[in-house]
């Protein structure tokens, strides 16, 4: 239970003995009352991801005492952070900006030179102060504090200055091929928040299912699905943890569940056979359908990004797409002239969907193998590219995208793809490989790109991905267990891609202790 001290009154929860459930009031502690001197550890703070800068100082450090309170200005900016931290430390929340001995002071200083997600955590003279220029930085500071209390019992005298190396640090979940209950997703969000991830990508439409309730297109929705109320609950929790949820409706491939309700929009080859999951991009109604779904779900998902998919369009996997799909070829020639191809039509399709996303004030993201080179039309520039492969048809080495001016998000299938059942050569990634070998610059294979093409301004970050190709091969509990350490390792390398100070054995032991709440 959170205790709120404001305007000189301590307000607890309703006392069963009080009339009409009226709150019980008692006077707050005053500066004149003796307060317990905190006695903290001497070791540097320990957290996952590890802090990037620690300056020790002389002093007794900070630890929770019987007098400890969380002090913050509760004007709507730090309310969530203060209440969550107070619950975790089992101490009261105090409205204000002046801390006493043993307190934790949370501060947002909009005039600070700190970046949006940067924070300082200062233990000095028995007071612990977390400062950020935005509430996100303060939140990350509280994650470091809680972990240090769990691991060491407090924080030594000194100052942490911490900032992530990459602005996009995420987890992608394929809920289309396998239904994941809302509670499971919420548990992952809490885990992500503690690890300082800031993005969750939900791939909720594919050949096997469409997994979120639709009021405008109920015919496409699978029997097992999330209701919109469940999604709103997920979004509210994500927002409180400073995690942006990125929706993905993949097209023009991977649309099997939608096309079950719209069979007339299926792509047919020259023999009249439907191509699995592929929509007929020569039909105007096809674009209207996907744009309609996008507009509906843009009202549900408030974040700044929209993932368009774009990968693995079946027509382009034929040796001669023009001969195999004469209808698409004719449409391409009509639109782009005699040299127009099916690939051009696919590029135009994704450009059109990107226009719809931008009209909805969303920044498009696309899979890299939907970005085709050459042809009569080029992919538009205003998009971010999630790079997962250099092997698929239409895929290119990462350098080509970077040299073309597109910013990438690293979703390396070599290190960051957890594909259920391990089909077509995939193996479950290990946290150890990620921790010891991978950095955001390692986009394809195991070698980094040229440093001149890398850096946070070009490679914005990365996402660890769960794909459910063989959905029944693992239960949701087995998935949670299988991705636990890979998520920890990914968090560490996105926050700081340098070689970690801890060995893998030390890192996993720390992760186990933090999860179990066991102190060294």
From TrEMBL:
The active site is at 312 (proton donor). GO terms for molecular function: beta-N-acetylhexosaminidase activity. Transmembrane segments: none annotated. Keywords: Glycosidase, Hydrolase. Residues 15-47 are annotated as: Disordered. Residues 45-162 form the Beta-hexosaminidase bacterial type N-terminal domain. Residues 169-477 form the Glycoside hydrolase family 20 catalytic domain. Belongs to the glycosyl hydrolase 20 family. This is Family 20 glycosylhydrolase.
């Amino acid at each position: 239970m959170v205790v709120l001290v404001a305007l000189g009154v301590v307000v607890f929860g309703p006392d069963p003995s009080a009339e009409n459930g009226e709150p019980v009031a008692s006077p707050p502690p005053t500066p004149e009352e003796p307060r317990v001197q905190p006695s903290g550890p001497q070791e540097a703070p320990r957290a996952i991801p590890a802090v990037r800068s620690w300056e020790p100082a002389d002093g007794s450090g900070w630890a929770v005492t019987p007098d400890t309170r969380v002090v913050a200005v509760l004007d709507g900016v730090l309310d969530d952070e203060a209440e969550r931290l107070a619950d975790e430390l089992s101490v009261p929340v105090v409205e204000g900006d002046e801390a006493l001995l043993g307190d934790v002071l949370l501060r947002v200083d909009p005039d600070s030179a700190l970046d949006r997600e940067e924070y300082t955590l200062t233990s000095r003279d028995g007071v612990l102060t977390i400062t950020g220029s935005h509430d996100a930085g303060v939140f990350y500071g509280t994650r470091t504090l809680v972990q240090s209390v769990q691991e060491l019992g407090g924080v030594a005298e000194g100052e942490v200055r911490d900032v992530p190396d990459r602005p996009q640090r995420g987890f992608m979940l394929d809920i289309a091929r396998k239904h994941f209950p809302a509670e499971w997703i919420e548990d992952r969000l809490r885990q992500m928040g503690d690890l300082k991830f800031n993005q969750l990508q939900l791939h909720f439409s594919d050949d096997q299912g469409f997994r979120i309730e639709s009021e405008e297109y109920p015919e496409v929705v699978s029997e097992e699905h999330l209701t919109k109320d469940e999604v709103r609950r997920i979004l509210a929790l994500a927002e409180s943890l400073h995690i942006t949820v990125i929706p993905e409706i993949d097209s023009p491939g991977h649309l099997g569940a939608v096309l079950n309700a719209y069979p007339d929009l299926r792509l047919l080859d020259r023999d009249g056979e439907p191509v699995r999951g592929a929509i007929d991009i020569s039909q105007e109604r096809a674009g209207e359908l996907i744009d309609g779904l996008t507009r509906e779900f843009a009202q549900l998902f408030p974040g700044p990004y929209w993932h368009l998919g774009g990968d693995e369009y079946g027509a382009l996997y034929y040796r001669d797409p023009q001969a195999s799909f004469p209808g698409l070829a004719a449409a391409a020639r009509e639109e782009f002239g005699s040299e127009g191809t099916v690939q051009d039509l696919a590029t135009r399709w994704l450009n059109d969907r990107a226009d719809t996303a931008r009209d909805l004030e969303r920044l498009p993201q696309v899979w890299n193998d939907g970005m085709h080179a050459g042809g009569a039309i080029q992919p538009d520039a205003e998009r971010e590219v999630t790079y997962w492969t250099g092997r698929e048809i239409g895929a290119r080495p990462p350098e080509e995208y970077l040299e073309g001016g597109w910013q990438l998000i690293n979703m390396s299938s070599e290190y960051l793809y957890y594909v259920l059942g391990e089909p077509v050569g995939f193996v479950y990634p290990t946290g150890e490989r990620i921790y010891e070998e991978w950095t955001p610059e390692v986009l394809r294979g195991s070698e980094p790109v040229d440093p001149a093409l890398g850096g946070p301004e070009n490679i914005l970050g990365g996402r660890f991905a769960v794909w459910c190709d063989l959905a029944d091969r693992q239960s949701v509990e087995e998935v949670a267990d299988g991705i636990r350490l890979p998520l920890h390792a990914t968090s560490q390398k996105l926050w700081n891609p340098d070689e970690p100070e801890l060995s893998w054995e030390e890192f996993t032991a720390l992760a186990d202790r933090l999860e179990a709440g066991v102190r060294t």
